[in-house]
Amino acid sequence: MQAAELYEQQVKPSEVARRLRVSVKSAYQWHQLWRDGGVQALTSRGPSGSRCRLSPHSLEKLAAYLEQGPAAHGWVEDQVWTAARVVTLIGRKFHVSYSVSGANRLMHRIGFSPAGPRPAGRRTR
Fold this sequence. Notes:
This protein is mainly α. It has helices at 2-8, 13-20, 24-37, 56-68, 83-94, 100-109. Helix 2 packs across helix 3 (24-37) and helix 5 packs across helix 6.
């Protein structure tokens, strides 16, 4: 919105970039949007990225599965949820594929923290 105000004052996009500490490319993109659609064209469209592939009900079920612990789902060697294990669990239970990084973000979103591989001989407190 600050950029729109500056464009209304005839400030050039390169100067808008400098004042708002953004890239010149972004300032020119905003300027084009502003010229074509006014201030409304610059309003936020919300967070970018793909939407969650699991429904809210499925997220609740996933949290319940994670609460049961890894052993309840076949990982008996330790009680650690890794993102890779969560990928497998999601595939088994919901028939949806996730990347390891996507599962990591999903775990954080529902209040869990994945454990990564640990060097031999090192323990977590």
